[in-house]
Amino acid sequence: MLPTHRPRRNRKSQVIRDMIQETRLTAHDFIYPVFVVEGQNQRLEVKSMPGVYRYSADRIIDEIGSAVALGINAFAPFPGLSDAVKDPLARESTNLDGLYLKTVADIKRQFPDVVIMTDVAMDPYSSDGHDGVVNAETGEILNDASLEILGQMALAQARAGADIIGPSDMMDGRVAWIREVLDSNAFSHVSIMSYTAKYASAFYGPFRDALDSAPKKGDKKSYQMNPANRLEALRELALDEAEGADMVMIKPALSYLDIIREVKNHTNLPVTAYNVSGEYALIKAAAQNGWVDGEKTMMEVLMSIKRAGADAILTYFAKEAAEVLRWG
Ligand SMILES: NCC(=O)CCC(=O)O
Ligand SMILES: [Mg+2]
User: Fold this and answer.
1) For the whole model, what pTM was predicted?
2) Where does Mg(2+) bind (predicted)?
3) Which pick of 23, 114, 149, 218 has the fewest CB atoms within 10 Å?
């Protein structure tokens, strides 16, 4: 018997393939994470992330401008601070004259229409390198003591002009806490994109190199999720929805495509995914060796994250992918 049903008919020409393509990427899908460091006129390549740079505040404006020219309108700045300003309570995180918040305000002044998502977690400012407060004797990460600090951090970011607050710390109850702090200070229009399911992943390595933000002691497994767990992501989702998150995020993306799909199937909120530093580095390394076609691999990976259910993708590939989308 010859086949009656021939799916290949739907693949017989480029026009037909384009006509019925289910998933499409656009530059609007991307949120571009950018690293800002102290100093002037600095543009320092991250060794483990070829093509990704740490910019001083004056130089980051050009980088944002070149991304905007490619149709990228959402940015997630992360600060790399010197040890001199770090302390156990992350006090620098509310400093409106400090590197991070001044840069955020400056970007918003120069580009009023772009969306800035700021990062809420203690690690960039903490002498312990943890996302929450560390009990000096036991090494325990103190959930409720951290909430107060995270709330004040979010409030300062809103004052600096953040459009979206992105709590990446994984403390319990922080979405409700931050929502309450924002609302009671006339920032009810500021959104929260919760890092809902952030896994304790080895794929964050290059990011921690870039910002020198690795924990001084211990690991993050008492707050970030166990990569073996799927249902736990749905419990975190239910809590973030109840606490008032506007958008939810899965991080990392590639080893967690199943989680992205699962979360997408269980929520009506927009779902985002963070294509993290290690995922970027793997592709770049293989491409530099000539082992994969870097551009095609990048586009396939980003497409897979969107197909899995992500409405938007945080990715270091944002500019490169936007160029491919624009020029082919
Ligand atoms: N809060 C940001 C991270 O923990 C890491 C992101 C990355 O590896 O790209
Ligand atoms: Mg949670």
Assistant:
1) 0.97
2) 236
3) 23
